[in-house]
Specification:
Layout (H helix, E strand, L loop, with lengths): L3 E4 L6 H15 L4 E2 L1 H4 L6 H11 L2 E6 L21 H12 L2 E7 L23 E3 L4 H15 L1 H9 L2 H18 L45 E2 L5 E2 L5 E5 L5 E5 L10
Parallel strand pairs: 1-2, 1-3, 3-4, 4-5
Antiparallel strand pairs: 6-7, 8-9
Helix pairs in contact: 3-4, 5-6
Length: 265
Amino acid sequence: MPVIFVNYRSGDEEFTATLVERELSRRFGDDKVFRASKSISPGSKFPQEILTAVRRCSVLLAVIGPRWLAARSADGGPALADPEDWIRREILEAFDTGAVVIPVLVGKATRLKREELPAELGELVDCQYRRLNHRNAESDLSRLAEDLGRIVPELGGVAASDGHEQSSREGRQTGKDASRKVAPQKAVNRSQRGGIGNVNGDFTGTFVSEPQGPVHTGSGHLYQAGEQHLSPRISGDGMQIGYVGDNHGTVNQERGGPRPSDGER
């Protein structure tokens, strides 16, 4: 049985009415929200379905956009003055059954004035409204849903059991557990020449600070020379110099012998 009845006029904020219905259905359940084009099955008797739904609802949301008052009936008069106008009939039916009627003013729609309405609908002016701006749609819809949860206890219970509050609690609990289990990492500052900034955080590799000579930390050979030519030789200070690193990170230095001539290796 629907608890919320979405009342709207074709040609005036139909999209917003759909948006309201879908968001409230997501929060409270599809069967709790009635919107004619969604809730009435093909082949069903439209008048009977509409009147039954509005008589059973606890809240009627009258979605009112800038063109709501300007709508005209078939004879050219104000639609709201026509006894056969469904918007008028649904609102009056909700008043007769004691449902809460909430005008939802959309965008630039202004607050209703008594002189703008037929006398039968004058009570609508006294109903506290809510505003929905598409720029703030998420927060405005959340506020509307919270209002409905307070007005209708049944909806408040549904919202608490459909996972929204539970997810929020689990998220908060997870955050608390994470803060207890994961200790903050200490920053490790090391100055290094030729680098950029500091080294921070936890690391497990080899760190060499300000090396003064050849360094080998892996496999393969390491060669260093003060002068290097395009030819395949390495020399420095007139002496042949060879630096070879073994697989354990040590460096072996060998000096001696005359400087090799071109072509020698």
